[in-house]
Amino acid sequence: MTTPEGGTTAAPGEVRADRPAPPRKDAAARPLRRGPADPVRTLMHHHQELCARAVDALEIAAGLEAHGVTDRTAARFRHRDVFSLAEELYARVPRAAADAAPAAAPYQEAAPARRSRTVCGALQLLPGAVCVAAVAALASVTGATPAVRTAVGASGLVLLALAVRLGVRSGPLRLRHGTGPRTAGLWVGWTAGYAVYGDWLLGQLLAGGPDLTHAAPRAAVAPTVALAFALAPAAGCAHWFTVRGRRVLAASRGLEELAARVRPLLLAVTLLFLAALAALLLGAEAVLGRGDVSTPVAAAALGVLLFLARLLAVHGFPEAAAAGLASAAALEALALALVLIARLPGLPPLGVPVEALTAVAGPAAVPAVACTAAALGLLVHGLRALTGACAHWPAPSGRPEAHRP
Fold first, then answer.
1. What global pTM score does this model have?
2. Residue whose C-alpha is closest to residue 181's, from 34, 319, 273, 282
């Protein structure tokens, strides 16, 4: 029908083509869909590289847990736990093309693997051998001048530090998550140096010294030798914990179950290393002479502290390891500082706690208390931090050899 303006109108009952059709009543009554139909797709795009480079679903679970995904988060993606969510991601995301060379046959890899384990074992025994050689060198220059003895002792300490560094750069004690805080080496050096010369220095300070012109530092030989040889059992215990942790990760079906199985492993490996270190300390004292009663206790506390710190650093928590070592170093430095501050007029009471402690148990009681407190703190932190899936996988990308200390 034509209008006076020249347009047209639709006839009754006719619907014009240029007008939208009115909404249907059944469409208006239908509820709107909220959220994506495939909630996992968003997670696939967000973790595309992790899922594409993963060698199995466990690596994806470790990466998700490292990014804060928990069992409660997995429930929002319609999965009972992180492991089932990781299995779906592993099944749906295509694998990335392998850029590595084809794997050699098993018989071709067996000999290099054995050689590698032999080299790692030799490097882990090297600090003990260097320490014994340094002790023998010091014994050979007993009648020499103090300058010569100091030079020989300093050379032995430098060689021992280099041997320890070589020992921790390979095998189970090698860092796989970066280098960690740069101050960690400083705290390790302080606590180790205090174990060697700290008792002598504190004794000199309490006696009103030291007389720098005639002072001849005396090292705690037996604990130093035992701690140097303790690197080998530390590597063995760390390997045992890593292997058992990955088996528990593979067998667990939830984060709570994983945590319940890992906590006894951490306590067991700590006690195992403590027993090995105690045997080394008793053997060293039997051969090289017995010191104060608290000396082996202090050395054992320091050894456990260093072991737990390295274990945390290896499994991705270097900041916590550095904090534990720093707390022990701070307590030892505070004890020395209080003895010096107590010499000032009006401040003698500040040195009373240190004097009372050393009067009861000897100078080695100070590092024993400091290292025990720090080791207990790291153990409590490890019971919470080492129970996650990300703590039992070398790296989220699945390339554990990419980082060196």
1. 0.74
2. 319
